[in-house]
Amino acid sequence: MNESRKRARTGNDKAGAPAAEAPALPKLAGDAAATKIAELQAELEAIKQSHEAVVDKLNAKVDALRAKNESQLREIKDLTSALQWAYAVEEIPRRHWLEQGRSEEYADAMGNLLNSMKQNIETLRLGGNCETITIDFSLQDEDENYIRADHDELLMPYWKELAAALRHWSEYHADGKYLKVEIFYIELPKSVLDTLHPAFEESSIETVFFENSRHSGDMANFAKKVLQSNHFITEVGFGVNKFAREDVKTVCAAIKARNAGDHFIKSLGLENCFEGGIDTHTLKMILMTAYAGNAEVVELRLNYNGMSSRESAVIAEFLSSNPSLSYLNLNDNDF
């Protein structure tokens, strides 16, 4: 009994003996310790920066996807709106024009105009081939003179949708391309110009031309606002818009302001735009506007303006000292 207890006690004593100590880590002293700490801190900082770079890259991808998604949602919303307009817009019945005392030919021409506007709107919305957008009322009288379409309030939804389509194309389909927009023989009162001008100010348009739109003062103010805001536009023209001298002054001032910077107007057309012909003072103002600034190439079209030998002397003097005018159209004047 005592012997067994002695053996048990002896075993317990061995179990309770202190464990062997772990080998001590080598101690770094002085400069060696500081160097090691610095190396570890640099390694930690590198890992941190690498992590931040990965996070930033992922955040950038998330932002890009979110922006793309928002852009697609806006485009879908715009297209949905366009489809709703296409289905909801009330067709202007042919009898509407006949009840106004218009001829059968006028009613037919208005039908063609509206179909053309809808086709242009669809092309712009869907990003089709649309280098040139032409809105043209095409009708001639017995003497083969073109007739201008009068404004009608029932046309306003078409003008509004055209403006929206121009902005839509510019935002989603332009891809570095620019439009030529021309409107022929349709009355454009201030209400229509006010509807169009935000789109003309913001859209990817390079060339604009308006022929026989009436309301010359409103057109001059429209041109001023558009040219001041939209520096994509480099070619501007008017035909059969009877401008007063103050109207020309307004347009010329806008072009001079553009040419004073780096966004030149390279082409200006004023064709058959002066009742009774162009006077010498107005002609000089136009010529000096074409020359103003640093544009290397300038085109000027002044055909059908009733100019005679008196104006030819002014033009000759101007040309002798202004070589930047590369093209001058004086056809169908009275020289």
Structure, described:
The chain has 335 residues and is of the alpha/beta class. It is built from ten helices and seven strands. It has one domain: Leucine-rich repeat, LRR (right-handed beta-alpha superhelix). Helix content is 55%, strand content 11%. It has a seven-stranded parallel β-sheet. The longest helix has 58 residues, at 31-88. The radius of gyration is 38 Å and the shape is flat.
What's a quick, concise take on this entry?
Helix content is 55%, strand content 11%. The chain has 335 residues and is α/β, with parallel strands linked by helices. Helix 2 (31-88) runs antiparallel to helix 5 (156-172), helix 4 packs parallel to helix 5 (156-172) and helix 9 (280-291) packs parallel to helix 10.
Task: Provide the low-confidence segments as ranges.
Answer: 1-17
Instruction: Summarize the main sheet.
Output: 7 strands, parallel
Count of all domains: 1
Report strand %. 5-15%
According to CATH, the fold-level topology is Leucine-rich repeat, LRR (right-handed beta-alpha superhelix)
- How many helical stretches? 10
Category from helices, strands and their pairing: alpha/beta
* Rg, Cα atoms, Å: 38 Å
Instruction: Let me know the number of strands.
Output: 7
Shape: flat
Q: Fraction of residues in helices?
A: 55-70%
CATH-defined architecture? Alpha-Beta Horseshoe
Straight-line distance between termini: 148 Å
Which CATH first-tier class would you pick?
Alpha Beta
Order of helices and strands: HHHHEHEHEHEHEHEHE
Mean pLDDT score:
86
Could you give the order of strands across the largest sheet?
1-2-3-4-5-6-7
